[in-house]
Structures are given as C-alpha cells and as structure tokens.
Amino acid sequence: MNRERKTNGELELGLGLRARHPSMLAEYSRQAEDAGFSHIWLYDSPRCAEPYASLPYCVMATSRAVVGMAVTNTQTRDPTVVANGFATLAILTAGRVKFGLGLGDSAVKFIGKRPSRFDAFREGVEVVQGLLRGEAVSYNGRRLKLPAVPEVKPPLLLAAERQRTFAFAGEAADGAIISPGGSPRFLGYAIGKIREGAVRAGRDPDELHICAWTHCVVGETREEAMDALAPEVGRTLFKAALRIPHEVLGASEPLLSAELRDHVLQEATRQDHEYDLARTLRAALGDELFREMTMAGTPDDCARKIDELRRVEGLSQLIINVYGPDREFALKALGACNV
After folding, report:
1. Which domains does the chain have, with CATH numbers?
2. Phi and psi dihedrals of 132, rounded to 5?
C-alpha cells in the first residue's frame, strides 16, 4: 500500500456525497476537486443513487480525485462482488479508488435486514482481501480467484465505530473510517484503539489511512448553520448517543435515559422518521454536543474545527458531507480552511 500518513499538520479533505439524485454526481465531484478536495466518497444506501454504477461516473467527472465507497457491506453485496467490482475499478482508473466495508448500517436497516454478525463480517473481509491480493480463496466450499487483479491493490478501510471494529481495522485493513467523526475527543479515543490493534498484529500503525466522517453546513451565522444541519444528522447523533462511551465525552452518566434509548433504537430503522429522530436527539443531547459531533457554523467556525481535527494524532483525512443551499460556496470555504 502507498504510505499515506499525516505529516506536518497535513489533513486531506474528502467530500462525502449523499447523492439523492444521480444528477448531483458530476457537478459536486467537479466542485469538490476544484476546491482542493482529494477524495469523493459515495454512500452505499437505498437512500442514494446506486454507488457501484455511480463511482465510474465520478471518476470520469474528475481528473485527480480518488473516488471511494463509504461504506459498502457484505449483506447486500456478496464479498466476491465487492472484490471483483473494486478490482475492475482499480484497473480501469489506474488506482484512483478506495473502498470501505462495514457490518451494514442504512443499506440493510432501511430494508428490514440486520447487520452482519462480526464473525461473518471478518470472514467476508478476509475473502475480499485475499481475492484482491490475487490469491485463490476458499468460499462456500469452492476455490475462487478473480479474473483480473490490479497491480496495486485498492485500499480497504473498515467502518470503525466500536471496540471490535476498532481492533479489527488495525489488525487487518489498510485503515478505517470513523463515524461520528466530528469530535476530537472521540477520534482520539477511537484512533488509539485502532493503533493498538495494529501493534498487537505486528503492523506499523503509521501505515494506516484513518478517516473521520462528519456532516457540515457553512452558514452566515452559527445558529443558521446548526438549524439547517440538524434535520440531516439523526443517525450521527444516534451513534454518538448509543455507541460512544459517555466517559469519553466527559459525561458522568449515559447520554440517554433507558426509555429514550429504546425509542431511538426503534426510530433509527425508519427512513421516514429520520428527521423526527434528529429533532428528538438534538433536544436530548443539547447544542454543545451537537456542535462537537458535526461541523456547523460560519467559515471561521469551520476553520477552527478543521484546525482542531488537524491536531488529532493519526488522523489522515476528514470526510465532510456538505449540506445547505449553496454547496459550491461551502466547498470553496472549506477548501480554503485547509490551505
């Protein structure tokens, strides 16, 4: 793998592109590249344009940006399909692709399925990695090799949100995508666990490409930006409330009551209730935690947030999902923050 470590305060910027309609793909990919973003990341979710078809389109719309998937899964996509798809993309794009794998979040929950069990996920990752290395792997009682293997294996990052996925990312992957990724406190905790996993496996933690995924609105005022972003981040606040140890965020007790926790767990599987969930969680958690988990404010506010994240040891890239009425302005402002 190419060495991609952060040095001298460098922090790559990636655009998280939640393409509700395919017409968004080329326009926002070009705008992000022009603003200095090095990566374009697509969702694998029924809420968005089909990503395996969209990735080549984003590559063709740009000249330099790496295009990635954040993240696909081995529930709706068989591991052999994932490996073959990204091997083909890596060959056709001369290596301008990365991809993330996770147990399954909105891609499976919104269609009434459950995420992968961890042991099955581990097996799927091993199959994908072996195939991309050009090996013959054992799968469902058969031996299988890819028809064409890229000269340079596309980097595989794991969606890392809890203890087991932190450790596994460090042990077996080329890096990680951490969500929610706006909190320096949570990122420091998570990256520490990922690096510990790498050390236990005899790997160099500095070789890992670790990304933080966050959501953003750039507005004229901080309050305006927060109000515009709030409806979009129900699942981000859900993860913060239920998955981050409350001690990491300086809280003395769990962030949600047992009753509210049960309500949130039920609502988080309902696509039609996503905005209501965001309002409920913002009210319960408060705006201070909302600001910590996201990036919302004026260009100066966002510059300060990027500077905070730049100082997180081991963080390679900030993936920013940009909302708001003028995304081109926001992308230019964010790109200028990182100069």
Report:
1. 12-222+297-337 (3.20.20.30)
2. -70, -20
